[in-house]
Specification:
Keywords: FAD, Flavoprotein. The chain is built from eight helices and 17 strands. With 328 residues, it is an alpha/beta fold. It binds flavin-adenine dinucleotide (FAD).
Length: 328
């Protein structure tokens, strides 16, 4: 049995998801502790050309499965392809992004190969004594951090939140092993008919991928005000996100929530508007490169993690920012 680490690389329309590069970065650190290699698993149609960026991002090699049936993500054929890769290559560890695809695929594969799965991890380590993977994730509604170890079953598998791990610097021209694994699909493997793929009109659909986030807290006062924040975000070529208070109030969708029970983001700029800076919120945005906060309370905790704090009414400041950027 190999003791290598496999990262399930997510691709859509020819581009690899950011989380896959983050996981390769993390896997290279874990692999160094185990003295093993890192492989990416790529599945799709006409994807061989996408292997090289994964190697340049740190993978020692890529195992790919190519088939027209894998053109769009569908649970059954993807689960079959990945199960075949795991059965043949026998990795020690398999990592997935905790994305909608990873969350769908990982448990199906875990059931097929009779192993465990720790979902939604925020930290991974190798136990120096046992060499087992220690998978840490929030539990009991985010009130404790639980570290889970899979002692008996193999591979050890985890889904990992996007934005938590860091990619390593790419090495252009790096070489690695690229091997194709043939999987015999039948019509019965495709239990879904895709009639149409409708792309979201949003420029960035995943806040973990946004370079600029304009984030609204309870201080914005209403769901309606997100339109103003969206206008500001558009001018900055960014997207909107939120504190949990506004998600709970039904002002914005859950997939926009930043924080311990939301998403972890690491944009170049995080503009916090009317967010107090609760510890659960800060847990999801403190690694942003630059944080600018607007809050009328000069003692708000968000200022403690801000590079620039603006004390004042956001309803005055945000329109001024929009006007200034329009002139820019
Ligand atoms: P508030 O705390 O109400 O802050 C509103 C801020 O807006 C205040 O600082 C106020 O001064 C300011 N303000 C008001 N009006 C204006 C104005 N006109 N101009 C400028 N400033 C103004 N929260 C998260 O965000 N993400 C999570 O993932 C998360 N997970 C949690 C998990 C658990 C287990 C628990 C217990 C809580 C969690 N929370 C999370 C909730 C968190 O504790 C806070 O309740 C929440 O973050 C508060 O949101 P807020 O900052 O928008 O609202």
């Amino acid at each position: 049995m190999s003791r290598d680490i496999y990262v399930v690389a997510e691709q859509r329309d020819g581009s690899i998801a950011k989380v896959s590069f983050e996981l390769i970065g993390e896997a290279t650190k874990l692999a160094a502790d185990l003295d093993q290699k890192v492989y990416a698993v790529l599945m799709g149609a006409d994807i061989k050309g996408q292997c090289q960026p994964l190697i340049e991002a740190g993978a020692d090699g890529v195992v790919y499965v190519e088939d027209e049936l894998l053109k769009e993500y569908v649970t059954e054929p993807y689960a079959k392809a990945l199960t075949a890769v795991i059965k043949q290559c026998e990795p020690e560890i398999v990592l997935y992004g905790a994305t909608s695809i990873g969350r769908d695929l990982a448990p199906r594969v875990a059931a097929r190969i009779h192993t465990g799965l720790t979902a939604d991890c925020t930290k991974l380590d190798i136990d120096p004594e046992t060499k087992l993977l220690m998978m840490t994730r929030p539990a009991f509604g985010g009130n404790i951090m639980a570290t889970i170890v899979c002692r008996e079953y193999r591979p050890q598998m985890a889904t990992v939140r996007p934005g938590v791990m860091q990619r390593i610097e790419a090495v252009p021209g790096k070489t690695g092993e690229v091997k194709e694994l043939k999987v015999a699909f039948t019509d019965a493997d495709m239990n879904v008919t895709i009639k149409e793929v409708i792309k979201q009109s949003h420029k960035t659909t995943d806040i973990t991928e946004a370079k600029v986030l304009v984030s609204g807290g309870r201080g914005i006062g209403s769901a309606e005000y997100y339109k103003t924040l969206q206008e500001l975000a558009d001018l900055l070529d960014g997207d909107i996100s939120s504190s949990r208070a506004n998600v709970d109030a039904g002002w914005i969708a859950k997939d926009r929530q930043v924080g311990q029970t939301g998403k972890t983001v690491r944009p170049n700029l995080y503009l916090a508007c009317g967010i107090s800076g609760a510890i659960q919120h800060i847990a999801g945005m403190e690694d942003a490169e630059c944080v600018i906060s607007i809050n009328k309370n000069d003692t708000a905790a968000i200022f403690d993690v801000s590079d620039l704090g603006i004390v004042g009414d956001l309803k005055v400041i945000v329109p001024k920012l929009i006007d200034a950027l329009k002139k820019y």
